[in-house]
Amino acid sequence: MIMTNKTTMSGFLLMGFSDIRELQILQALLFLAVYLFTLAGNLIIIIITTVDQHLQAPMYYFLKHLSLLDLSFISVTVPQSINNSLMDDGYISQGQCILQVFFFTSLACAELAILTLMSYDRYAAICFPLHYEVIMNPSKCKWAIIAVWLSGSSCGILYTSATFSITFCKAKIIHQFFCDIPQLLKISCCNDYLGVIGVAGFMSVMALICFVSIVLSYIRIFSTVLRIPSAEGRSKAFSTSLPHIFVVSFYLSTGAFAFLKPTSDSPTAFDLMISIFYAVVPPTLNPIIYSLRNEAMKEAFRKLLLGGQFISEKTFWSCC
């Protein structure tokens, strides 16, 4: 009754995964384990790509910012869900919900932008190796990253402004573990969310442009790699490209499925699982995927585990 009164007053009620107390605690513990693992994995990548002079190329500079995005992205939703489950209280204030939508959207857009940038970096490195240092010089790298963060923030401002300009007519109950935009649209007044649809359409076009750019980059990359006479050279090129393809495919497919499918009036466990696949799984898998397929990353990680000393002198890329 108290929760119901709170949701009718100001905030929202996140239903989460279950009403059974034991399952709530189990979900909180599982989310806590995943969250700590994700924090550790991404922090390790940030540390070793900062202090190891052998990992100062643009690829690792972009990977460091991808890890920073992943670390922030999972921190937007998972800690709140853990707290709600442990406290047995799904209430979230409108201010918290607005911040969640803003940061979730901003970081998701920025992640797509940096994945596009990373595909261009691989394209320049493999297709134009002699001109690579000119194409991806430190100044361009820095401005590209600034553009990534600014584009993400712009998307977040647009989407959040459009979402919370609508009027919520129905009970403020969200059948998710975070403030999910499709769920928010379900409780809005009829035909009151056309502005959100317009913003979503614009962002979909931008996402499609990013996707086409990534596909074209990898068509050129693979056509070039297959012409490399050395088996070792082909293996090295694939080792830096295949993880990126997997991350992009997984991220875009799960996100597109979740946001493009119609929301049902009676949410199922499948809807919650899909949200986990695009909100929790990518930040958790990225450190594993990028580390296991990259010998330089594995060597730097071994040095970190063994307490080895990293060479910290300034390099050509240090200003990045």
What does this 3D model show about the protein?
The protein is an all-alpha fold. The protein has twelve helices and three strands, in the order αβααβαααβαααααα. The protein has helices at residues 2-9, 21-51, 58-87, 94-127, 132-135, 138-163, 181-186, 194-225, 231-260, 269-279, 281-292, 295-305; strands at 12-14, 91-92, 173-174. The chain has a three-stranded mixed sheet. Mean pLDDT is 81; it is low at 1-8 and 310-320.
Gist?
The protein is mainly alpha-helical and about 325 residues long. The protein contains twelve helices and three strands.
Topology:
Blueprint: H1 2-9, E1 12-14, H2 21-51, H3 58-87, E2 91-92, H4 94-127, H5 132-135, H6 138-163, E3 173-174, H7 181-186, H8 194-225, H9 231-260, H10 269-279, H11 281-292, H12 295-305
Parallel strand pairs: 1-3
Antiparallel strand pairs: 1-2
Largest sheet descriptor = 3 strands, mixed
The average pLDDT score comes to: 81
Spatial order of the strands forming the largest sheet: 2-1-3
Q: What is Rg?
A: 21 Å
Q: Strand tally, please?
A: 3
Instruction: Provide the β-strand percentage band.
Output: under 5%
State the order of secondary-structure elements, H for helix, E for strand. HEHHEHHHEHHHHHH
Please tally the helical runs, counting DSSP H or I stretches of 4 or more residues: 12
Shape: globular
- Kindly identify the CATH topology: Rhopdopsin 7-helix transmembrane proteins
Which residues sit in consecutive blocks of at least 5 with pLDDT less than 50?
1-8, 310-320
CATH architectural designation:
Up-down Bundle
CATH class: Mainly Alpha
Pfam families: 7tm_4
Subcellular location: Cell membrane
Membrane topology: Multi-pass membrane protein
Function: Odorant receptor.
